Each structure stands twice: as C-alpha cells, then as structure tokens.
Amino acid sequence: MEITPISNAGGARINGIDLSQDVSAGDVAELKKAFLDYGVLVIPGQDLNEQAQLRFCNLMGGVASRGKPFQERVKDADSVYEGAVHMVTNLTKGGVALGSFGDGEVWFHHDGSFKEIPYAATVLYGISVTSIGGETVFANMYLAYEHLDTALKQRIKGLQGLNIYDYASTGRVDLTKDVTGLNQWIHPLVIRHPDTGREALFVSPLITARVEGLSQNESEQLLKELFEYQKDAGIIFEHKWNVGDLVVMDNRCITHARKDFPGGEPRMLRRTMIEGKRLVACT
After folding, report:
1. 120-138: per-residue pLDDT in tens?
2. Which 3 state secondary structure label does DSSP give 258?
3. Which of 122, 168, 247, 267 has the smallest CB count inside 10 Å?
4. For strand 268-274 and strand 63-64, is the pairing parallel, antiparallel, or unpaired?
5. Is 86 in contact with 77 (CB distance < 8 Å)?
6. CA 168 centroid distance within chain
7. Are residues 90 and 18 in contact, defined by beta-carbon separation less than 8 angstroms?
C-alpha cells in the first residue's frame, strides 16, 4: 500500500489496496493513521458493492445510520432516511429522484453538524461521474483556525454556533421563520478533535446559522469573518471524480463543497458514514 500526499493543505492518495477483499490489520492501522494525518483519503480503482463499502466503514470505526430527522423529507427514493446508505445523485426513475443533492453547486459544510453527535467521516464512492465539473472541494479547518489572527481567536474562544439545515433549501436557513421543525444542534465554534487533540474551526456557510449569545448583527458580522476561510487558497484542495474512487473525509477537521456541473450529465455517488464522538470546545 502506497500513501501519497495530495497537497500541502491535506489529503492523501492510497494505492495498492483492494477494498473488495479482506484487509489486513496492518493495512487498517495504516489507513486510520493516514486518515487522521491527512483528513481526506482518496482510494482509486475500487469495485465495491454496498456491503463492501459498509465493511470498510466498520473497519474505520463503525457504520453510522443517519437517524430520522425532525423535518419531513421530500418524497424520493432516499426517503427512508434512517438507512445507512444514501445516494447523492441527480438521476431519476419514473420522475422520482433516486437520491438527493441532485444538481448544482453545494456550499462548504460539515456533514451532520446539525446533529448532537456529528459523523466522524463521510465515505463517498463514485458510480457515475460528469465529464467536467462536480469536483469535491475540501477546506482544512485546522489550518482555517491557525490562520485566524490572535485577536479573533481570543474573541471566539468559548462561543457556540447554532448548526441547522433545511432539506428544502440550498442555502443558509432563514432564522426569521419558524425553524422548530428543522434538524439543529449547538456546537462550539472551535472544537478539539476527539482523536488528534488538535484545534479546528467548526463553522460552515451552509449550516452554521447563528452565534449564540450575540445580537443578530454581531452574529452575522462574526460569521462573515469566519466564513472568509473559503477564500484562503492555502487551506483548499479538491478531488476530480472518476468511477471507482472511494473518498473518505474527516468531518471534524474538514469542510467540503461541490462545484457546479452540467445538469444533463448523470452523477451518482454512494454515501455512507462513520460513527462519531461528542465534540468538545477547546479550553
């Protein structure tokens, strides 16, 4: 097995392993270490069915089921939300969507940050990919925090953010409307990674809607400052998809986004999750 760094901002490419077969304890240990070291693993050339992908998740820490949300989902082939396997796709059958997050751009976010215990990792497997566009873009949130000036670090110490998501929207939730039926949870703006002990900024333009304890104007101004991480080329890297790619991202220290792509081209990724641990603030 070969581990090759992708960029100075993070990510590593793993070659020389077939995840459809049994994986040795030594290789599992190396994969876990690389995951914590690099934040994102890209494992190309895989031929995986659902069972093999779930087996990989179990090797890496355990399969997470997404649980039933507060919000009523649109009727699609992914409506049984509690399941462990989810299709990220723009494909339809008989006029019914085969999954969700179909076409277009998706803003930076941590998957499941609106849950009490967010996922440790997201695992995506490429089934159909577009000829151009559709890249997954990653931001290293360890570096996002490190790049803040000292005054801003001190200002956000101990503050918490409301993370909330509306499946019917492609942007941030409007807090002037009733949000009691939406999935939401409050987490620290800066967390200590439960496995590495490193500090990471835990905010995202898609899901972090408010800083607790501040006025609306103060909250918006502070979040605007923190969301500037998206413009920091020194913490950004991306992945151009090929069929058979397996990508694993650490949801505690990585946010990810999706670039736009031609709406007429089929795109399908199989998504599974790895169980997480409770997040705690830095002290």
Report:
1. 999 999 999 999 999 999 9
2. strand
3. 168
4. antiparallel
5. no
6. 19
7. no
Helix (H) or strand (E) holding 226: helix 216-226
Q: CA-to-CA distance for 207 and 170, rounded, in angstroms?
A: 10
Which residues, including other chains, have CB under 8 Å from residue 86's CB and lie 6 or more apart? Answer: 66, 78, 99, 100, 270, 271, 272
DSSP annotation of 65 reads: P
Smallest CA-to-CA distance from 135 within 6, 278, 8, 261 is with 261
Q: How far apart are CA 248 and CA 42, in angstroms?
A: 7
| Alpha carbons 76 and 73: distance in angstroms, whole number | 8
The DSSP element (H or E) to which 123 belongs, if any, is: strand 121-128
Q: Which residue has the tokens 């790619």?
A: 245
Query: At which residue do the structure tokens 């997040």 appear?
Result: 279
Distance CA 238, CA 131 (A): 16
Tokens 């069929």 found at: 243
